[in-house]
Description:
Helices cover 34% and strands 17% of the residues. It is built from 13 helices and 14 strands. The N and C termini lie far apart (47 Å). The structure holds iron/sulfur cluster (SF4).
Amino acid sequence: MGSNFPSERLFNDAARADNKYMSRPARCFAPHQIILTKGSTNTPQRQQLAEAICRAYPKAEIQEQPNIHHNKVDLGVSNRLGLHYEGKRTLVLGEHLSSVRHSDEDGNTCPNYWHFSPYGFCPYGCDYCYLAGSRGVRFSPTVKVFMNLDEMLDRINTVARKRGRPMPFYLGKLQDGLALDRLTGYSRRMIRFFADHPYARMTVLTKSVDVENLLDLDHRKHAILSWTTNPPDVDRQFEPNTPSVGKRIQAMRQCAAAGYPVRAVVMPIIPLDNWRDVYEVFLRDLLMRVPLSRITLGGTCIYKPALQLVDLKLGRGNAISRDLQSPDIDGDRRARYAEGQRVDIYRHLIQTIRSIQPELQIGLCLEHTSVFEALGMTPAIGQCNCLL
Ligand code: SF4
């Protein structure tokens, strides 16, 4: 049954918990309901955080569903687009017991890597979102905060000590890495954990500009921060409800000034009619303003269910999907632009980057060996954003 605020019983231990963090509403996110699912409040620390998150959204309806798993919440909407939009307005607090995982993919040059999930999915509205069509999100498209961060860090510690040498843990595969950080303050705990760890390092991918939690921390360069960026034209047309690219660049500059290694991921590159000029102007601006340690380029690269959602949102023949080839059924089953078109685009962008920063590391995301070969970039295979 819904109520305007969690029951006293639910939060009566909260005052005893430490790790106090003053939650603030996340930018670009105003959920109309918050659902507290299984495991979300079963320790004093989780209760305290749940209460703080609920207080940040006093107008949201709070529902307690303590026997429901985070991915089994029924939003009562059956049509695909309606379910997607309702999910974006719903915040689920839960527990994710297998949130530290090793990826398991083949069919492209990307190496597999460790990743972790203190969040699930994302409040932003990118039309091209590949994640929206993934199996986990398609059936459970809510925005999620997982409350068992301590257990995740324990698991990361175990994995990293077993490896015994520096290794990355990626935050941004199944979520935006910082979009909800104002709400949770997780960055402050994570960055301190990784700073103190002899082997574990964190790589984060985000579009968020809320970096104030990060700037005063002694991170020891053990957290690498990367931003997905695209030219402002692409942002305006295809990235509704996201922080503007100009503000992302400002956030990147702030974090670089605070000593963090900062990277950019220019993806998905969308072949607008005037893409050469648009991307060239954008890259020049980005590279002149942000001291990047690596840049990764990638085209639209999308599974069929996510592509169906793109077409539902934008109509068929839109600028994202009109040039896409059929999914690569002998490879990783993603749809891409034709190889010749990709090589043409990469070549132009790489020449632009090289003309400004000849030594900057350049990676290609989710690409095939033949594309690296055509560009003379075979040694760069595996020089990915997900890795150190
Ligand atoms: S930021 Fe990433 S996960 Fe979030 S909507 Fe955009 S593409 Fe999807």
